[in-house]
Design brief:
Layout: E1 3-7, E2 10-12, E3 18-25, E4 33-39, E5 46-51, E6 58-60, E7 68-73, E8 78-83, E9 92-99, E10 115-118, E11 122-126
Parallel strand pairs: 2-11
Antiparallel strand pairs: 1-3, 3-8, 4-5, 4-9, 5-6, 7-8, 9-10, 9-11
Length: 128
C-alpha cells in the first residue's frame, strides 16, 4: 500500500521551531518532487515549499522564506520541513504530497493538481 505519513507537528510558542517529517511506505521518494502544503481553519490549502527529486531545486512561499527549510534524505525515504521563528499565522494542518509530473531538477507549489499522493497531515499550532 502506497502511503505518505507526516509527523513532527505539535503545540509550540511563537518564535519556536519544529521539524516536520514526511515518510513514504510502499514506494520510494527518489523519483518524486515533494511538496509541503498547509491548510488553516477557514482558509484554502496553500503551497508552502517543495523540493525536486534530485534535491537540487527548492521553492518557498513568500510568507515562509527565510524561516522554513525543506530537505530530503532519499536513503531514509523521508523529506523534512524545518520550521523556525514560528508565528501564530503558521497554525495549520501541514500535508506533504508527491509530484511525478515534473522533471527531476524542478518543483513547483503553484499548481496543486499535479500532486497525486497525499499524506493525512500533521497539526501545527503556534500559541502562547
Amino acid at each position: 500500500q502506497l502511503q505518505l505519513v507526516e509527523s513532527g507537528g505539535g503545540l509550540v510558542q511563537p518564535g519556536g521551531s519544529l521539524r516536520l517529517s514526511c515518510a513514504a511506505s510502499g514506494f520510494t521518494l527518489d523519483d518524486y518532487a515533494i511538496g509541503w502544503f498547509r491548510q488553516a481553519p477557514g482558509k484554502e490549502r496553500e503551497g508552502v515549499s517543495c523540493i525536486s527529486s534530485n534535491g537540487g531545486s527548492t521553492n518557498y512561499a513568500d510568507s515562509v522564506k527565510g524561516r522554513f527549510t525543506i530537505s530530503r534524505d532519499n536513503a531514509k525515504n523521508t523529506v523534512y520541513l524545518q520550521i523556525d521563528s514560528l508565528k501564530p499565522e503558521d497554525t495549520a494542518i501541514y500535508y506533504c504530497a508527491t509530484d511525478r509530473s515534473v522533471a527531476y531538477y524542478y518543483c513547483s507549489i503553484k499548481i496543486q493538481g499535479t500532486y497525486d499522493y497525499w499524506g493525512q497531515g500533521t497539526q501545527v499550532t503556534v500559541s502562547s
